[in-house]
Fold:
Amino acid sequence: MTSWTVEGIRSTVGDFDLGPVNLDLGPGGAVAVLGPSGAGKTTLLRTIAGFVPARHGRLLRDGVDVTRWPPERRGLGYVPQGLGLFTHRTVERNVSYPLEVRGRTDALRASRPLLERFGLATLARRYPAQLSGGELQRVALARALAAEPALVLWDEPWQALDVEARHQLSLVFEELRSGARIPVLIVTHDPSLAFSVADRFLVLRAGAPRFHGEPGALLQRPFDRFTARFAGYENVFDRPSLAQGGPGSLAAWLDARAGPGGVAFPRPAPALDPAAPGSWEGVVRVVRPTPEGLALTVAVGPVGVALRQPSTADGRLPGVGDRLRFDVEEKSLRPLEAEDEASGAAG
Amino acid sequence: MSSGGAPAPVRASRRGGAPWLVLQLVLSGSLVLLFALPLYALFTYAKPAEIFSAAGDPAVRASVYLTLLASGIAVLAAVVLAIPLGYLLARRPFPGRSVVEAFVALPVAVPHLLVGLGMFFLLIPGSPLYRLTEALGLPVYDTIWGVVLVMVFVSAPYTVLASDLSFRATDLRALEAARALGAGPATAFLTVTFPAALRGIVAGLLMTWARAVSEVGGILILAYTVYPAGPYNGPVSSTVSVLVYDLFENGNLKEAAAVSSLFLLVAFTLFLAVRLAERSGRLPWGRGELVP
Structure:
């Protein structure tokens, strides 16, 4: 069981600067690296993997400085964006690769249990081009684990996966953490993966860490439009859209309470009865079913507000064109910081 | 979804597909015909008996052997010299890379006789390079080395360009995955980058071979007649291309057509063998890569 420490790491790709980043990853720890495109998530992973040289800071593996070690000596299970599978090798020869390069003459046989564990035994002789998205992900993970890694680095694990494959993969992550206790660092754009797998979030913005802490803290206090949307806030408004509201409008009321980057708040529950109390009235524009009931979007002047399904005594459901009344609790408002422009050079 | 609505777009796309298919067939067929007709004319001009007779002629056999040997060495030289250059151009940015890329393609554009003239001026007897080739035991005038030199000059660019494109197309992330999974730089190149690029590289080598065996102009100047030297210890001969040129110049059209047809059969057999081996998955890059 290995512990990793990222100590003030800085790196540069083109004109994009990352860091300083500080991070502790103990056995079984899972950190999700979040941030908008161009925030430096992939650059951080590639710096830890050793493909981008660290200009400052140290990477410690059980207290040993491995900052200058080449990637092959670091003991990683690295799954790059797009998986990086070897298209000219069969599934079994992909999975056995880490053992082959370590000189194991029984690499194919030794990797057999991993093929079986990931349900790949029947696909062993196929090539990656012949597999589905979920199968490819399993091959990539099996190959990463064949290296018996001390740290798993995974860039965008859930890209193009169906619901069942996602579920299977999240079980594997759980096993990694609780069984083998291998620390995991994942880059993701997917809130459901991040919240289900990670015990900590690292949010990057324009190459710099903006938040490092428990997921619950981000749920309570999103600080910019990206984190608000990531945490599930459906009402996220920037200042220019709020500025279009006239005096006394909901937009103007929100504008007066917004931060430099705008404001976010959870979906309020409306009342379908036009005579019901509520400060604001809107017209239903969109009705869509969700597992939590109907999700509504109502137009209130220049802004569209997301609302929950109203509870009505007679069980009537709202439709497009209905008028609804609702309140926005002031204490539910989250003023947001301005977002920097993404620098674009790195993922 | 109702069963009545879905099939309509499929029928529409089938209707739209037929003219498109016809257009493809017409255009592709025209080019294949353009390739095939001159070859058909060659084959029909020489009777099968004459082709068999050419195959049995010791002088023709020596010429075919010399051509295959020289072109084989040229392909080997392309493997050793052109693939590394292709890799360099694909993966190592350096100042003036575009200039080098443009320069590498130049030998393909140079008229064939000028290639020979350029070589002649460079290796004119008494020049430092001439003395060097003599001292190394690699005399170029009227030897297989002269043939190989011209062949490499005119044909290696195909392997450089094919390697360049193939290495560029390989997945850098696969290379990084290999490194992180424990492979050093050399192992990662040999096990991941090179095999992934191999199919394109082999295509380039085939083109290199084809271009090498078809060269006439440069060889006419440097090694019109080839005397035994180095790896070639057969009778005094000339390459097939020069032999055919010679026969044509002397008015032996039947014989020129017979020798050409014979060599075309050899070349076609080689190309077909590579394609069939590729289809059967017997080549190192495997069948799976061919699946879309």
